[in-house]
Amino acid sequence: MWKRNVIVAAGLLLIAGCAAPTFESPGALNEVGSVPEAVANLAAPNQDLTSARLRPEDGCYWYEHSGPVETTLVPLRAVGGSPICTARQS
Question: What is the dihedral of CA 40, 42, 43, 44, to 10 degrees?
């Protein structure tokens, strides 16, 4: 009986690990790929706007750059090279 319970418990843990986590997003601005049209027009070419998002920590837009070894978040830059950020509120 004890062995059966252990096998059932282990099976449930394995199945629970296969469930996809769900996150509720507080707003559309933080969703991946949801950049306003004005930001898309400012962005320099060769940046992945489909992975761009606004980070509330610094108020700037970041996108995922897929390199040969890893994928990292990189600031979204304008044509002149400056990062694209929202205006800071006092």
Answer: 140
Of the candidates 77, 72, 35, the residue with the CA atom closest to the CA atom of residue 53: 35
Is the pLDDT reported for residue 74 higher than 90? yes
Per-residue model confidence (pLDDT) at position 61: 95
- Rounded Cα distance, 11 and 20, in Å: 17
pLDDT tens-digit series, residues 7-43: 877 766 667 666 554 444 444 445 556 789 999 999 9
| Closest by CA position to 39, among listed 8, 9, 5, 62 | 62
Record the tokens describing residue 21, joined without a space. 């986590």
Are 54 and 29 contacting, i.e. CB atoms less than 8 angstroms apart?
yes
